[in-house]
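Hello,

I think I submitted the NAP job twice by accident. Can you confirm which output corresponds to this input? Input:
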Amino acid sequence: MELGLKGKTALVIASSQGLGKAIAKAFVNEGTNVLLASRNEEQLKEVKKELSLIGNARVDYIVCDITNPKHIKAMVEKLLKEYGALDILVNNSGGPPAGAFEDITDEQWQNAFELNLLSYIRIIRECLPLLKQNGGRIINIASSSIKEPIPGLILSNTFRTGIVGLSKTLSMELAKYNILVNTVGPGRIATDRVKHLDNINAKNKGKSIEEIEEMEKQTIPLGRYGEPEEFANMVVFLASEANSYVTGSSFLVDGGKIKSI
Ligand SMILES: NC(=O)c1ccc[n+]([C@@H]2O[C@H](COP(=O)([O-])OP(=O)(O)OC[C@H]3O[C@@H](n4cnc5c(N)ncnc54)[C@H](OP(=O)(O)O)[C@@H]3O)[C@@H](O)[C@H]2O)c1
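Support: Only one job matched these inputs. Its output is below.
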């Protein structure tokens, strides 16, 4: 299958590690120029170094806290100045704190809204003039909680479903510009975030992290956690020219964990 990604430009948010980094790497493997964006400059430098060794694509980074609208504007200005175009926007973020309804303060609700939903809105708004020029792709990363709430993660459960509503509505509003908008939800992909959540679970249940991982794996039909590269493959397909008719859809990459149809 011809993906048609060579020479295109992708902005990958929250890409200093985990899923964002794997997505950026998958794009570079296809010859797509990538701008990395997140807060930790040391890690961004390392990722830039690693991806620049791959070959023909341009890789750069900008330090950006996506909860800060000024940072978002500066990021898109850099993109325009240095890359001159944008074909693909991948929205991603850090995960919100774990907790049940009665644990979460107003401040935590506000912070999670700004990190996990409002940042996507602001980034799309800033990128839209560039994406409109030649049509493009927006892929919004969410969570398996878009199909089934995860116990003890009320902030994620609430704002990730907001991403789905946003994506679906935008798929209708932006179709006239040939901008395709989709959502992808990860489930148990082996990253620091999942390790962090497994640690919390282990403490709460008085078990070892290995026991928690074993219990989790038993809920996944494929019997293992996914690799970030396996998640990235789905994003790359949706971002590619090979995808010309999928928009407004939500997909899970979760080894079959979520049982709803
Ligand atoms: N892995 C899974 O199976 C899974 C399942 C469900 C949902 N998710 C969600 O998918 C997203 C990515 O997951 P992951 O597993 O890759 O998480 P991760 O390993 O914790 O990586 C999170 C990324 O977000 C960036 N980030 C955090 N806050 C930011 C901010 N304010 N501004 C800019 N960048 C920020 C971090 O970089 P800096 O520290 O450099 O800013 C980092 O690159 C998270 O929201 C996670 O909750 C993941």
